[in-house]
UniProtKB/TrEMBL annotation:
Region (Disordered): 390-424
Family named by the database record: Belongs to the glycosyltransferase 87 family.
UniProt keyword annotations, A-Z: Cell membrane, Membrane, Transferase, Transmembrane, Transmembrane helix
Feature: compositional bias, Basic and acidic residues: 405-415
Transmembrane portions of the chain: 12-31, 115-132, 139-170, 176-199, 206-228, 274-293, 305-334, 346-379
Annotated GO MF terms: hexosyltransferase activity
Residues spanning the signal sequence: none
Record-level GO cellular component terms: plasma membrane
UniProt-recorded name of the protein: DUF2029 domain-containing protein
InterPro entries per the UniProt record, alphabetical: GT87
Keyword Transmembrane helix: yes
Membrane topology per record: Multi-pass membrane protein
Superkingdom in the source lineage: Bacteria
Organism for this UniProt entry: Afifella marina DSM 2698
Amino acid sequence: MPRFTILNDRRFWLFFAFALTLLGFPRGILLDWIYRTGSLTDLNHPGGADFVTFWVAAKGALSGHAGNLYDPSFFSRAMVDQFGEDFDMRWLYPPHFLLLIFPLGALPYSVAYTAFQAIGLVAFASLGILAPRRCEMSLWLVFAPTSILCLLVGQTALLVGALSIGAIFLWDRKPILAGVFLGLLTIKPQFGVLIPLVLLIERRWLVIASATLTTCALVAFAGLVFGFDAWRDFILNIAGPQGDVLRANAKTFLEIQMSVYGGMRLAGFEADTAMLTQIGVGSAAIIALITTLRSAARRCTKLAMLVTSTYLCVPYILFYDLAAPTFIAVWLYLGYGLEKGAGPVLSILLVLVATLSFVNGLTVAMGFSAGPLVFVALATALFFRAREESARAPEHQRSPQPDETTPRAGDRPVLARESAASWR
């Protein structure tokens, strides 16, 4: 057995990677992003570049103009009324997201900003309860680079990551709650794009029913509160400002993209070529996901493949949208849910994922985006790990079985013990 030193302690290297990343944040693109629409010392608008859209939208919804938010000219005027200039941001979220944020419009900017980010951070840190060492996992999540970045930028990624991870890790044990989380995840539906496929393959009918009912209730309630015209305007907006965001060719915007599409555009390829490549890589990721789901791999390997495949399928991912893969990376790096610890190659990949916003910033300075390359490498590593786990599994576990069943009463204690063991 090798003698223990700090240099062969996994936690030391994760701490070192986080510290190095955070020390890199005060320079370059991050400061440009923060100060582009505010100053950390300005009490009226203390930084948080993206939060201005949520606050302006919340004030618009409170004043009865929810449907008008999707009109670029209206939103531009509202931005100028609040801050004296238009920051060239538009409202792209569905109407039921307004249900979650419209009370913020009644608060001063700094108070609303603090409350919104606190809710997201608490939700993300609460995922630590899924780990054997709860407090330790929560601390890693709080101080993860993606958490600090989201807090400074003022984005939804922590809340979205909490809903996504909470749903997929709980749908074995709490299917109704997992469905509620999935219904709420429709505020940013692209990050759940592969989840319906998984639910159908695994025949999780209770999760599907709960998610469907939650989504329908949110859609209907938002229509009643803000008017159903808001939904019409949102749908029409998909081909307008939302499409313009995806087609944007500004180098500063492409540099913070993490998708295959964004990486191809940054490399100089035309939009059609980039999208075809995105479709090809996404299709391969879906095939790898289905193969992994139907194998006898451990549950955490399958969930990690689901998250990784999602990030290979979505064409619009920005550098703050990394909460879910950060959780997966830290979880697997620390050995949770793995029968055999992560080897050197997988460990390096997991650390790269956990610090990807910074790593991508370094590679962009060299002329290419590391984001899609890291996700492709991680998907490949998980695919082969799933094959290895399947080969070691007992013969009776190798035929694919649905994960959601209705066990007999006498089977439940045995199944409970097996389920608990599978998460260690």
